Amino acid sequence: MTPQESVERALQAAAHLHGCVVLVRESSEAVLRWANSTMTTNGHSTATRVTVIAFVAVEGGVAAGVVGSAEPTDPAVLVAAAEAAARDAGPAEDAAPLPEPTADDAAWADPAAVTTIGVFEKLAGDLGAVFDSPQRHYGFASHEIVTTWLGTSTGIRRRWVQPTGSVELNVKTADLASSAWAGASTADFTDVDTAALADVAARRLAWGARRVTLPAGRYDTLLPPSAVADLMIYLAWSMDGRSAQEGRSALSGRVGERLTSLPLTLACDPAAPGLEYEPFLTTSRSGEGISVFDNGAPTRRVEWVRDGVVTELAYSRAEAAEFGTSFAPSGDNLLLTGGADGSLDDLVAATERGLLLTCLWYIRLVDPTTLLLTGLTRDGVYLVEHGEVVAEVDHNFRFNYSPLDVLRGASQVGATERTLPREWKDWFTRAAMPPVRVPEFFMSSVSLGR
Amino acid sequence: MLDRVDPQFRALPLAALADAALTRARERGAQHADLRVERIVTQTISLRDGAVTGVADETVVGLAVRVLVDGVWGFASHGDLTPEQAATTAEQAVQVARTLTPVARERVERADEPVHADAVWVSAYALDPFDVPTRDKVALLTDWSQRLLASDGVDHVQTSVAQVRECKFYADLAGTSTIQQRVRIAPALTATAVDRAAGGFETMDTLAAPAGRGWEYMAEVEPELAAIPELLAEKVKAPSVVAGPYDLVIDPTNLWLTIHESVGHATEYDRAIGYEAAYAGTSFATPDKLGTLRYGSDLMHVTGDRTIEHGLATIGFDDDGVATTEWDLVRDGVLVGYQLDRTFAPRLGLARSNGCAFADSPHHVPIQRMANVSLQPAREDVTTDDLIAGVERGIYVVGDKSWSIDMQRYNFQFTGQRFFRIENGVLAGQLRDVAYQATTTDFWGSLDGLGGPSTWVLGGAMNCGKAQPGQVAAVSHGSPSARFRGVNVLNTREEGR
Question: What is the DSSP secondary-structure string of B392-448?
Fold first, then answer.
């Protein structure tokens, strides 16, 4: 049964219901992994998943039940199970009329797009040369293509192909004393320049020729785009409107508040060139800021922060109606713009004394009332003096800092560029961020971990 | 025992899939091949303030073929469970291995292990959660929510329960063939108090850990509910902690997570030799220190196992087809062992694996994953009160919350659910804004008191992350109450200023 047939069969079986949404996702993924300058676990996988969301009129409203399966099951069986789940759940708080069709999808009848291990042909060849160097090489490359078909009982038929790729090079000196990292996100690997990434890592390893030990404390800190992305992603994930409305969020009462005098805008945008994501919403779960009743609704650019001011929070359509605001769906990319033209090197050149980071790791929420996060620096912390990198710091730092304070405290912001978030890349690869200077970034303690 | 395994899983053409995949792999030149067929059923029910926000059922199925061709791994998986697809997937796995042979600088060797033919294993549980009507589950969580919402000082209640039934078939060219089924459950409840006047809020979670149990476990969670409103109200009014060194008595409901991060991950052999260096990280506990590294005080005895009843990592045979076991990781405060799979045991010079291979889905390759790593209690039955009685100025830490540790498992920071001030050997009310931060060996070196068997509790998590592409594993950690001297305590409000 084709994906399109699965959609139609399920919707026919659900004709007696209040409504129905059917999502079919076919994923094709190829991965390469290497450590200690040799390949380790590599492979290719293919999977199909059908999700049926049944909407049932029950006493007190409309209920929703979600059943997903990767088994080759008759879609009518899934509809029956989803209907039963809905009846067991009772009326849904996020009930709303299902979206109506807004556009024909010329690609609806097309088959799934796929990837193969061959997508890494050039990369694997490049790695062969890289592995011959005296350093130790570790890393990962992933290419996944997910094709989604969405059908609804209101007549929506949409198809979307989402390519997601990334490559990370982690290079260590032979004695493991220094470590550097470079990564990139990509849609198809045609734009991955392995040699350039290796050069970035090699340049940083070279800074380890001189090494210094520094105490914990507040530092003038230069956050590269990857580190900024990891902090801003956590902020974006914390933007749900309901918790803010109910007083249980660091964003409570902050819409309209100016965080910075810099004209910084933090947004998601399904049409961002090279970072596109679904122009229509698909979800198999309801939660704060998202609803299964919104499947098929057009996604849009949402500016969480506009010109330095907290502007929007995430609301499903039902929540937007409940709180008298606009439907604001979270997105699958994140963009921070509004800085100057400078690069990270320009920020280094303008630094009298400070720290240059590579990336961040193990970021977790410590205090939800302030969005205080903890985490660690990783794969290279460098001392900058008089406009140039003068040494590698021979340890990492644990930081305790809020992404809200990153925006509040930023004193210099460079040009936005596409980047790979080191910490969150398993869930979030599409980001464009600038390098940012935070004058009093708080390094709470020294970490001996390397 | 086979009749307890999900009939839909038993109905799959497991033998035919194995024959097709393994035969094709051997024909194409694989010296080793294994097939896994998995069917993983999950259900998650979530409520907010007594209203259902989601009932979601999910079924994942697939077959995975892993091959060794001239010492190079190849892996492929597919969602279609037909012999034809199994054979094609085996060909793809061989192709992956051959494609990467030119850039593979090492050749994999595996430990010899006994063959286990037609073995069946089912985890210990009384009531399969998927045999309980969803309506009854929703009714239980609704009742919990409404009871708490009716209490003074509770403004919001979020509750959920996740349930998993994992069926796994394994067969390899050597002749091992196993069918296994595991059930696990993770109840959760958070009560929130909002202070609109002051603009703040505070939360209080239940302490019951995820467990390798059935629906019967929910009855053991329920008694916690009655105390939540009072605990939350006291926490809201509690004074903020004064930062500085404190003696800590740490409850197993908190210490399990510290064990997980600072011992569990640090004693994973693949990490210790760099196989996770680009992602999850490495370990300060490197093999050259085996037998000599002073991990902690003499009281520290940490074991690994995949056998304890109701453990989340417990299973009969791992994803290498190895019978599971238990062993020492830290004995008398010294590093004495690692967690291993069949690939890494020979690297350490050992003849046998200790059964830690695991893949979280049919679409992921098995890697070395964490066993149930547990701190053993004192032989004599020391109570938590006994430990507290030995503290002049300290904090009793209960329940887990925030956690973070560095790439080598040295520097960590944890918060918790409840912090009780200890003054002259007795509890003196709650504190708030507490986090403890330490270096692993300093922390375990400060261990000077262990609770006895009566304080020992099996904690754990459903969501331990590792590997690329990311894999999630459920794992348990047993711990008694334990006392640590002079641990650095932070005030999280001050940290954020």
Answer: SEEEEEEEEEEEEE-TTS-EEEEEEEEEEEEETTEEEEEEBSEEEEEEHHHHHHTEE
